[in-house]
Structures are given as C-alpha cells and as structure tokens.
Write a structure and sequence with these properties.
The chain is an all-alpha fold and 356 residues long. Helix content is 68%, strand content 0%. The protein contains 16 helices and no strands. It is globular and about 50 Å long.
Length: 356
C-alpha cells in the first residue's frame, strides 16, 4: 500500500485482504513457533507454550491487522506481531496456569516484553525466580526475533520510548493481576492511582484494561515504517490508543468472559460496573472516543476499521450470547451503524467456517 491508499480503504476490502493474504502467513509463523515449543526440555513449559498458541492464535490473527497498515512491509510486520503476541500469550499462561504466585518471578519474566522492544538490550535471565526454566531458548528466540525486526524500521527511534512505556504498563498489569485473590486488588490500585490524574475521564479498572492491550505497540511498530514520522504524530497515536482503543479492546475481551471469570474467581474489569446500563454506557464511550480520536491520525479509515473490527470480532463470539450480557450486545450492535453490523455478519460467517 502507498500513502494514498487510506482514501480507498473500506471495511470489506480490508477484511478480505486480512483473511486471504494475512491469515495464511500468520498460520505459517505460528507453525514455526509450535515446532520450537515442542523442543523445550521441560514438559510443563512446552505444554504452556503449545497451549498458548492453540487457544490464543486468534490474538495473533487479530493483531496482524496492522500488517495492512499503509506503507508497511507485510511479511516483516507479521513476523514481528506474531512473535511479540506469542510471547505475550506464553507469559500469560506462565503467570496464570502453573500454580505460581510470585510477584518477583512474574516481573522478571515480563522483562522479555520490554527488552523485545529495545534492540540494544542485553537479554535478562527471564526465568531467574521462576521454578521452571528449561525451554531450549524458546522465550529468548521470541525476544530476538522482535529485536531483529525492529532494526529494519526507519523511524523506530521515534516510537521506541512510547512502545516501551506501553510494554512496561502491560508488564505491571500481568505481574499484579495474577497474585493471590487477597492481594491482587490492593496492589493494582496502589500501582494505578498515581496515573489517574492524567486520565480523569476513566476509572482505575478502565486504566488497567487499557494497559492489557498490545495494539498500541503494534500501531507504533507499523507507524515506524514511515521515514518521515514525527514526534507529534507519535504523541497523537499514543493519546488515541491509550486509553481509548486499547481500553476498548480489553474491556470487550473481559465483557465476553464475564461469566467464565466469575465462575473461576478471575479478576474481571467489567465486574466493577454496577449495572448492565453502566456497562453499555462505558463501552459506548470507549467506542465513540476511539473513533473520534482516530480521526486525528494519519490514516483515519484504517483505525476506524480497527475499532469497528474489534466490536465485530468480540460481539460475534459465541460467549457474547450469554444471557447476562446479551441485552448489552444487542444495544451495542443496534447503535454501532451499518459498517459494524456488516463486519459482525462477516465475522459470524468466518466463525462458522472456523476461519477465526
């Protein structure tokens, strides 16, 4: 794509390119990481790596929408996005699934997320405080793949600080969120509260949700292909994605997981809303602000498709049929316009065909 292509972008064309051109490369990349995961000597780490790919491949598929950002090297972008998202999902499994609840261990593991965005970083011992470590270099390879990809970006230095800031916030969230039920909430509020003066429009739990998305990092990566990228453009991307687009992304994710998280006693940011009406109003606020802020960006139509695509993807998930949230789903779809409803229908067809 060249820089004039944003004017010609429309939702259906972009989704067609997404499914036909991007998905096969994502699958190919994931197959490569699966083979590496199988080689880990520790069966627990191998299992968690393979499970994170099996159950969360759609995260890599979704994130790879940024491989269609105008002016980008599609293959290289998919390579980076799949490696970074696979690392994120693998670490999520390590802090969530192996009966470990150690703040120091979680924080050390997530240094990988930050060092992957700094091509000059000397790699840390990520498993230093974690009880299992024999992964045959799997986590290190994910980090190095990202570092190598970043070196090819003409304007990476312009986005690096913001990208790493997003990664640090993500790392804090993952460290505190997975502690014991008795301490996770107070630790998280202690971490979040100092930031809220910068974002008076949002609650502590909405801030937490925004930190849980990798979309801001992927957008920074995509923008860095532009050799003329300015600091001001980076600031506008940052303000649009955080808290709005990133927040919408994760709030929708938690929204459809509400029942499942209640049953398993997992922290869920949507559960802090006191009423379905509040859920709708807050999600709608995030949709409206995401679209409004997106108009300030260089390729507004692209970001508009990202926002509408998030709604279509999550609301078409079978979990959105849950009786507790169905009324909110219907209201969101009713008030989202023809574009979202068309994408919603497309996503339903892709789910029937098991494409997503």
């Amino acid at each position: 794509m060249n820089n004039s292509d944003d004017r010609r972008l429309n939702s259906v064309k972009l989704i067609y390119l997404f499914v036909s051109k991007v998905f096969p490369i994502v699958k190919q990349e994931l197959n490569g990481w699966k083979q590496k995961a199988k080689q880990a000597p520790d069966a627990r780490l191998s299992h968690q790596a393979l499970e994170s790919i099996r159950l969360k491949a759609f995260h890599c598929q979704g994130g790879s929408i940024y491989a269609l950002y105008p002016g980008i090297n599609r293959i290289e972008a998919i390579r980076f996005i799949v490696a970074y998202q696979t690392m994120s999902d693998y670490l999520d499994n390590l802090v969530d699934s192996l009966e470990v609840q150690d703040e120091k261990a979680f924080s050390q593991l997530h240094l990988a997320m930050q060092e992957a965005l700094n091509p000059e970083a000397v790699l840390s011992d990520y498993y230093l405080y974690y009880p299992y470590r024999e992964d045959d270099g799997y986590l290190e390879q994910l980090v190095k793949t990202c570092q190598e990809s970043i070196l090819k970006l003409p304007s990476y230095k312009t986005v690096q600080d913001e990208a790493i800031k997003f990664a640090e916030l993500y790392s804090h969230l993952q460290t505190y969120k997975h502690l014991t039920v008795g301490e996770r909430e107070s630790k998280m509020l202690h971490w979040i509260n100092p930031y809220l003066s910068d974002d008076p429009e949002i609650t502590a739990w909405e801030f937490a949700a925004a930190t849980g998305s990798t979309l801001g990092i992927f957008c920074m990566y995509a923008a860095a292909f532009d050799s003329k990228l300015t600091i001001r453009q980076v600031q506008i991307i940052s303000q649009t994605y955080f808290p709005w687009i990133c927040g919408l992304h994760i709030l929708l994710d938690y929204f459809i997981d509400l029942r499942e998280d209640r049953e398993t006693n997992q922290l869920n940011f949507i559960s802090y809303y006191d009423h379905p009406k509040t859920i709708y109003e807050r999600l709608q606020l995030f949709v409206e602000n995401s679209l409004k802020q997106g108009e300030r960006l260089k390729y507004p139509k692209f970001h508009q498709v990202v926002v509408k695509g998030l709604l279509a993807m999550y609301l078409s998930d079978e979990k959105s049929q849950d009786v507790d949230i169905q009324s909110v789903v219907r209201k969101l779809l009713k008030n989202s316009g023809v574009g979202v409803n068309l994408l919603y229908w497309l996503c339903r067809q892709l789910r029937k065909g098991k494409v997503i």
